[in-house]
Amino acid sequence: MASHIVGYPRMGPKRELKFALESFWDGKSSAEDLEKVATDLRSSIWKQMSEAGIKYIPSNTFSYYDQVLDTTAMLGAVPERYSWTGGEIGLSTYFSMARGNASVPAMEMTKWFDTNYHFIVPELGPSTKFTYASHKAVSEYKEAKALGIDTVPVLVGPVSYLLLSKPAKGVEKSFSLLSLLGSILPIYKEVVSELKAAGASWIQFDEPTLVKDLDAHELAAFSSAYAELESAFSGLNVLIETYFADIPAESYKTLTSLSGVTAYGFDLIRGAKTLDLIRSSFPSGKYLFAGVVDGRNIWADDLAASLNTLQSLEAVAGKDKLVVSTSCSLMHTAVDLVNETKLDDEIKSWLAFAAQKVVEVNALAKALAGQKDQAYFAANAAAQASRRSSPRVTNEEVQKAAAALKGSDHRRATTVSTRLDAQQKKLNLPVLPTTTIGSFPQTVELRRVRREYKAKKISEEEYISAIKEEISKVVKIQEELDIDVLVHGEPERNDMVEYFGEQLCGFAFTANGWVQSYGSRCVKPPIIYGDVSRPNPMTVFWSKTAQSMTARPMKGMLTGPVTILNWSFVRNDQPRFETCYQIALAIKKEVEDLEAAGIQVIQIDEAALREGLPLRKSEHAFYLDWAVHSFRITNCGVQDTTQIHTHMCYSNFNDIIHSIIDMDADVITIENSRSDEKLLSVFREGVKYGAGIGPGVYDIHSPRIPSTEEIADRVNKMLAVLDTNILWVNPDCGLKTRKYTEVKPALTNMVSATKLIRTQLASAK
């Protein structure tokens, strides 16, 4: 019985690639140094899977930024502004597309389906010239082969690539991206031909858009694309991999009818209903890659249950055609549980990171082949039983409080317009108030202080003194820049979710459980293993300290319940909404304590609310109902004069704008500039928004510094569709990933642009 891994984490067990990338970007190391780190990591990953007994090992899943950008490079689809002149795409052009440079902005970045991973959105149009410009897939296959390891090269499928793209600037929004299929398929044929010549016997095409709601025209594109590629597939086994949700019946029918395709991969964790389709109509003679081991969470697989599922599928696909697989790439989970020396033994026994999931996949394959490791399965069963019965998982008081939420929609007592009037009387803000999103640059010195405090190398008094000094510096900078509503910069926080989780009951934390979010950015999601409660105030001390340093309004900074949920590894033994309501009640207590401490503006970030939206439209309403309700729970009890902000970033928000309005926040700041001001189109189309709103005026994920004129132009575009009295001016997102040498001039230009427009508005009266 064979085993397969869809993909594997790239950053390395100690984030080796992250540090190598940042060193290269800072000019401290060469391209050769970067490639040496990447080569060592790839070699280690392939050898690990080979030694674990995995038969179908993926290659070309390693990336310096993301796999969609790699595909853009492969196709030579470089936007003109990057002045690429042809040939093999180098790192300079590649990273300019991802991060921008001094003269041109980066391409848009958005969420990869409903995960916290991001990808760079291709910009295409009728004039886009495609050419085979990156041979990465072939070179990595050859690299593995030189190590004696035959891999399965992985390509983003041609149809999903186009469906994930957007019309380039200046191209009609109605332009059919699928009309470019005939232009990119010749390049895919070249890649397939080179892989075949290099010795590849299998190729994996990732076509995850098949799990979405596709129309007949989009489904037809899959049929025509693979019919065109069929001749190139001669002599090859071709796997089409899908993941993240159930595949709709029509898409399943299209997929299993594709020309030249040997095998189909399905996510049987988030796509459990797909099992019914497989059992009723799986094509004879084809391989079934059964994704029974969860690639998106860190819980140990219930091996007995998975084995039962696999045994039932043997009768459908045949013993020699069933392959045990992960539900999706393991890049969405942490790397190796071996690196966790501080987790207590009980919780650790419940977990499996990427390295352990590789072992689980192979153990299941061997069990199916009659070589069951009885001791391994017995230990797994004991861990499953321990988790089900552990008293640390359940808190009756929390469960009762969450159950009592039913029957109320938890709205504030007055309308947003009434509240905004009351708040303005108290805050006395100018027209077009300026603010930032929360964090300020996380300097090397600041990270050192937090690290030494955690390691008990400095005292609590020394730590508090250092953080106060940093807050004072951030406050002074904002006052000198003349920003209207200030933030304390979050110097006490390494990560916005981890910080809160560390202070809530029901959470566990890893030392090295890093997961890639985008580029070199890694996050360390907390693990929600039990019922959630807040034993003590979490942010009140720092917010009061910061407010005491200025006469200007200082925002209290919180992470919202939906974002904490979506950016954590969540318990899988109860519905997600129940856990979210528990977190909402904990945040509600914090909001009320901040208000009692005199904090007049409280921001409750829901950066990940859109991210959790199910991929199928039929499931949207239920999710949005409990997600929006959770946010309202957090602030339903505050006074009219307390201004509640929220923040969202790097997703497409236009399709959920009415749910955003239903959140009933007083002010929302929202990413806008990197996505070419796509958000503004919803207001041009007539949606009325009565609360305060701050569409971002510049992209903080790029080192590029926007000019005063550029920002003023953006603000004027906003004023064309939004009322002056509700518009705020702010960056797209928090500033923690930037340097002060970038932040200060960018914010200076932002404030200058705002003052320029205020003057223009005043003179026009």
Automatic annotation (TrEMBL):
Pathway, per record: Amino-acid biosynthesis; L-methionine biosynthesis via de novo pathway; L-methionine from L-homocysteine (MetE route): step 1/1
Enzyme Commission number(s) of this protein: 2.1.1.14
Domain of life: Eukaryota
Recorded catalytic activity of this chain's protein: 5-methyltetrahydropteroyltri-L-glutamate + L-homocysteine = tetrahydropteroyltri-L-glutamate + L-methionine
Binding site for Zn(2+) 2: H658, D662
Keyword tags: Amino-acid biosynthesis, Metal-binding, Methionine biosynthesis, Methyltransferase, Transferase, Zinc
Pfam families recorded: Meth_synt_1, Meth_synt_2
Binding positions (Zn(2+) 1): H647, C649, E671, C733
Keyword DNA repair: no
Stretches assigned to coiled coil: none
Cofactor(s) needed for function: Zn(2+)
Single GO term (MF): zinc ion binding
InterPro entries cross-referenced by the UniProt entry: Cbl-indep_Met_Synth_N (IPR013215), Cobalamin-indep_Met_synthase (IPR006276), Met_Synth_C/arc (IPR002629), UROD/MetE-like_sf (IPR038071)
Role played: Catalyzes the transfer of a methyl group from 5-methyltetrahydrofolate to homocysteine resulting in methionine formation.
Name assigned to this protein: 5-methyltetrahydropteroyltriglutamate--homocysteine S-methyltransferase
